[in-house]
Request: fold
Amino acid sequence: MNTLNVSTQAYPDQRPGTSGLRKKVAVFQQANYLENFVQSIFNSLEDYQGQTLVVGGDGRYFNRQAIQVILRMAAANGFAKVMVGRGGLLSTPAASCVIRKYQAFGGIILSASHNPAGEQGDFGIKYNIGNGGPAPANITEAIYAESQRISHYLTLDSEDIALDDIGSAQLGSMHVDIIDPVTDYAELMQSLFDFDRIHGLINSGLFRMRFDAMHAVTGPYALEIFEHRLGVTPNTLMNAEPKEDFGGGHPDPNLVYAKDLVDILFAPSGPDFGAASDGDGDRNMILGHRFFVTPSDSLAVLAANAHLTPGYRQGLAGIALHADFASRRSCGGKTRHRII
Reply:
């Protein structure tokens, strides 16, 4: 396999935020647009040669093609190994989990979060650092600076890697591991929460729930955690098959876009608990029977009761909260929180 040094020209619109770079798919499909940004990520980093990179995304349109580009470029730039979610899938929380568990150098996550998908929809790319969290401002600014002076990128002249079967492959001198995108995250959740007691509650017949994955990345996670490990019945899960266009829907878990779930919870004989997640699985909406739980209230409930869970019996180190308050006022859309 030959390493190619490809000449390119800078694009002026590649400034990422903590949520990465989000544009229309057609923008990313421009000649060298994705390659420029990926090379700018690598150029902004130090001492990554010989290290491990984690790669995956929410499964939206262009996800698979982008992963092949990243794999070839990671190999050409000197990474020793890349861990990729099977089928190109990794939720944002699962990517963070894998980065931390396997002490990877960092990860590239392909997602535009709650934005619509499909050929006419949006695409996104973001870099997470070695602690599993999103790149801080000094790194995103360094990436942008590199993107404004880039003149070439490195890649391999190679065939695509098969993404749909767990196993290993070689790409030049780089090792590629196709991993189950769910197992590590499910095991982490089982270590943090008392799955035996939750399983008992669900199977007592006294508690009913529904979960809407909105045809985005969390469907396989819901299948493994809720159905296989906690014992919910199959009809508990809605829209659990990831689709490149999210089934034509809008994976923003709020009272408007998750209306089918809302109607079920607000029916007279509705279940006791409902939840929906966004495109990449790092944000949710919580419902009770005939009532909506605001994101700040759901965070307060988690924090107040964290000491009852196996993973947080010693208490919390802290809570991180980021909110787009305008969106939160209009149906609780964009509040993110993380318990530390």
In short: The first strand starts at residue 2 and ends at 7. The two ends are 44 Å apart (CA to CA). The chain has a mean pLDDT of 92. The chain has eleven helices and 16 strands.
